[in-house]
Amino acid sequence: MTPAQVLAEWGPRAGLLGKPTPLPAKIDRIDLKSRFKVNPFLMAPMAGVSDAAYRTMARAGGAGLAYSEMVSCAGLHYGGEKTWELVEPAENEPDIAVQLFGSKPELFREAAASVSERLGERLALIDINMACPVPKVTKKGEGSALLDSPKLAAGLVRACIDGVGSHVPVTVKVRRGRRMGEEVAPEFARVMEDAGASAIAVHGRFANQLYHGEADWGCVSRVAQAVCVPVIGSGDVSSSQAAARMLSETGAAAVMVARGSYGNPWVFRDAAAILAGTSPSPRTPREKIAAFRCHVRLLDATGANLKRARSLAGWYLRGMPEAARLRGMVVTCQTLDDYLAVADAAERALDDVG
């Protein structure tokens, strides 16, 4: 089955859309402010997670936009088709945001131009990663290391704009600062805006916090006050309630949901419901099992490595009856049928407890 066929058949069984909702035709795709007014809840870029199947599930769950994994500009230059697999949208994805990382303007210019040419109208925006705190990235002067080099960072923004012209927005994702106690995000964001960035995403932790401690949503507010372009809030958006609260409390135009979407593709639609003043119904165990079935089938349909389904099983089946036994089954799974057998076992366990 194709990804579109999988989603059409299995998505509604899980309480998801059978077809992702595209941006309304009346909205210019370069107008991010208007786009975020239509739907401000976005699926964040996540290394090793946000492949085509994951993005499809997020869009079926109501995400207004979904991002690729972090893609190396050097990888696109030297790596060939293997790296391009991170960029290519599934056939039923209306559009995709592509996040690039690196530190060389000439490679950003080339990568942005190549991605734009290859994806055409399905490229929603190019985002530059200036937030990744992982040492193997920062030691090369990439990711959050760019927070120490605003002139170079601005040059990367201009290089991307040179590569795509005026028909694709270029955005950046930053952290509060590189080191604890040294907040640079508001001033850094102003420099990025002056360089031509169309939006700024802000994660409210310092880079050397990695993912520990609490994200400071006040930093998101300070960045929103510092610039005129839309600001996207990020960090500790662990639920639909948190997503709606960040939007209402910080002045952000949109919110990125990352780990809060693990096993919860409904988080985006639920956040929109909360924002509108209604209370979404909690997901039933059977809906979660159905979503797992759909997600694994999408992995298979998009040609992804099915080992990724091992993490998915842990997320979707958490808290189910006999969860420990189900986890034991998952570690030996190799094929699509193996994973579907785990879903069958989960349903039988539910039947056993009534």
Structure keywords:
2 domains, alpha/beta, globular, 8-stranded parallel β-barrel, 14% strand, 354 residues, TIM Barrel
Structure notes:
By secondary structure, this protein is an alpha/beta fold. It has 2 domains: 17-275, TIM Barrel, CATH 3.20.20.70; 285-352. It has 16 helices and 8 strands. The chain has an 8-stranded parallel beta barrel with strand order 1-2-3-4-5-6-7-8, surrounded by 7 helices. The radius of gyration is 20 Å and the shape is globular. The mean pLDDT is 95.
Structural class: alpha/beta
Q: What string, H for helix and E for strand, traces the elements in order?
A: HHEHEHHEHEHHEHEHEHEHHHHH
Mean pLDDT: 95
CATH class of the largest domain: Alpha Beta
Low-confidence stretches: none
Radius of gyration: 20 Å
Helix content range = 40-55%
Largest beta-sheet characterization: 8 strands, parallel, barrel
Any idea what the shape is?
globular
Kindly identify the CATH topology of the largest domain: TIM Barrel
What is the number of beta strands?
8
Which strand order spans the largest sheet, edge to edge or round the barrel? Answer: 1-2-3-4-5-6-7-8
Total of domains = 2
The CATH homologous superfamily name of the largest domain equals Aldolase class I
Q: Specify the CATH architecture of the largest domain.
A: Alpha-Beta Barrel
Strand residues, percent: 5-15%
- The separation of the N and C termini measures 33 Å
Count of DSSP H/I helices: 16
